[in-house]
Design a protein that fits this description.
The structure is a single chain. By secondary structure, the chain is an alpha+beta fold. It has 3 helices and 23 strands.
Length: about 375
C-alpha cells in the first residue's frame, strides 16, 4: 500500500487525504522557522537598510577595538584590511538624564570628517580626538588612550593640553576605520581604565614609570619634554619620551628610551639581581648602531666607552656618534648613548644639524648628567 489513508467529508463527497511523510514534516518546520525569523528580525534589517540609504553607504560594515593588553587596544585579524582614520574618546555628561547607548553598540558613521565636524553630541562629551591624514593599517595599530599614535595629530583637547585617563572613570571609545572606497561604521565600546604604567603628577608636571621608577620632568636643562610618549609593546615597560631643544639658532631632537634588559635571556645568566652582563649591553649597543646605519645610511664617526657619574656610583656605558646627509642636503650628527641600571636599559638619542655641534655637545652632556636615575 502507498500509505494509510484517512478521509474527510467535503461537499458531501468522500475524498482521501494523504498523511505527510518525513520530508514534508521537515519542510514544514523550516517554513515555520523562516516565518519566525522574518517576524523577529525583519524590522532590524529594515532599520539597517534605511540607515544605509540615508547615509549613502553601499554596505554597513561594523568593527570595534578589542582590549589586547591592559589599557591597550587593537583590532582582530578580520579588520586588518581596514585603515584607522581617527580616534575619539567620550564621557557621558553626568548631569544628563538621557540614557546613552548600551555599548558595545553602533554609535555613528565613519566618513571623512573634518575637524569642524568633530563636535560634542549629547549625552556625550568628547575628551580626546586624534586624527591622521595618512590612514594607518589596523594590523599595525595600537591604541594607548592619551598617548598620540605616531603619525596622528591631537584635535581635542588643544595640543598644549594632555588627556590623562582617570582610573575607574567610565569612557567610551570609537576608532574610526574605513576602506578607501566606502563609508565604514565603527562600534563604540565601554572602557574603564586601570592604573597605567606611567603616572602623572599635576603639581610637578612629571611622569613616573611605575615599574622602573624613572621620572620625566617637563624640562631638563634647556630641553623641553614632548608629550608624544610612545610605547612599543603592550606591557607599558618598553617606551620612549622625547625631549627637544629648539631655538631660532639651534635645533636638537632628543629621545630617552627605557626598556627591560632581562627579558631576553635566562635569569640563571644574571650574576646578581638587577645587574646586566657586559656582553648583553654590548649586544644591544651593536644592534642599536646597526639600526641607525641601516635606517639613515649613516657613517660611524667615533665610538667609545662612557662613564656617567651618578650620585652613589659610576655607570659604565657606551657612546657612538654618527653623521648622514638629509634629503634636503643638510649634514646632521646623531649621538647614541646606552647604559644598564637595575635590570633596565637606558638609551639616549640626540640628533641635530652638524653646524650646531660646537654649542650642542655641552647641552647634551648637561642633559645626560641632569637626567636622574632611580
Amino acid at each position: 500500500m502507498a500509505g494509510i489513508m484517512t478521509y474527510e467529508i467535503r461537499d458531501m463527497k468522500i475524498e482521501p487525504k494523504q498523511q505527510p511523510n518525513w520530508q514534508q514534516k521537515v519542510l514544514y518546520i523550516i517554513m515555520l522557522g523562516v516565518k519566525y525569523l522574518m517576524k523577529t528580525y525583519l524590522p532590524v534589517l529594515v532599520v539597517l537598510n534605511v540607515i544605509t540609504l540615508l547615509t549613502g553607504c553601499r554596505t554597513i560594515d561594523i568593527a570595534y577595538p578589542v582590549l589586547v593588553q591592559e589599557n591597550t587596544f587593537g583590532f582582530q585579524s578580520q579588520w586588518w584590511d581596514k585603515n584607522v582614520v581617527y580616534v575619539q574618546i567620550f564621557i557621558k555628561d553626568g548631569s544628563s538624564t538621557e540614557n546613552g547607548p548600551d555599548l558595545p553598540a553602533l554609535i555613528g558613521p565613519c566618513s571623512n570628517a573634518t575637524k569642524g565636524q568633530m563636535v560634542d553630541w549629547s549625552p556625550f562629551t568628547i575628551v580626546w580626538t586624534v586624527q591622521t591624514d595618512n590612514p594607518v593599517s589596523a594590523k599595525d595599530f595600537r591604541l594607548f588612550p592619551g598617548v598620540i599614535p605616531e603619525g596622528f595629530e591631537q584635535i581635542i583637547p588643544d595640543l598644549s593640553e594632555r588627556f590623562q585617563p582617570v582610573p575607574g572613570q567610565e569612557y567610551f571609545i570609537m576608532v574610526c576605520m574605513e576602506p578607501v572606497d566606502e563609508t565604514f561604521y565603527s562600534m563604540g565600546i565601554k572602557w574603564i581604565p586601570s592604573v597605567r604604567s606611567l603616572s602623572f603628577n599635576d603639581q610637578t608636571n612629571t611622569y613616573t614609570h611605575e615599574a622602573s621608577k624613572f621620572a620625566f620632568p617637563a624640562s631638563i636643562g634647556r630641553f623641553q619634554r614632548d608629550n608624544n610618549i610612545r610605547f612599543y609593546d603592550e606591557t607599558g615597560n618598553n617606551f620612549s619620551v622625547p625631549y627637544n631643544f629648539v631655538t631660532p639658532e639651534e635645533k636638537v631632537v632628543g629621545t630617552v628610551y627605557i626598556y627591560p634588559s632581562i627579558r631576553d635571556y635566562s635569569i640563571t645568566l644574571i650574576p646578581k639581581f638587577g645587574q646586566t652582563p657586559e656582553w648583553f649591553l654590548k649586544k644591544h649597543y651593536d644592534e642599536a648602531k646597526t639600526s641607525i646605519v641601516n635606517a639613515y645610511r649613516a657613517r660611524l664617526l667615533s665610538e667609545s666607552k662612557y662613564i656617567l657619574n651618578r650620585y652613589l656610583f659610576n655607570a659604565k656605558g657606551k657612546k657612538a656618534v654618527f653623521e648622514w646627509d638629509t634629503v634636503g642636503g643638510e649634514m646632521v650628527l646623531s649621538h647614541l648613548y646606552l647604559f644598564a641600571h637595575k635590570g633596565w636599559l637606558i638609551k639616549y638619542r640626540f640628533t641635530y644639524p652638524s653646524k650646531y655641534n660646537d654649542v650642542t655637545k655641552s647641552e647634551i652632556e648637561e642633559f645626560i648628567n641632569w637626567f636622574q636615575w632611580p
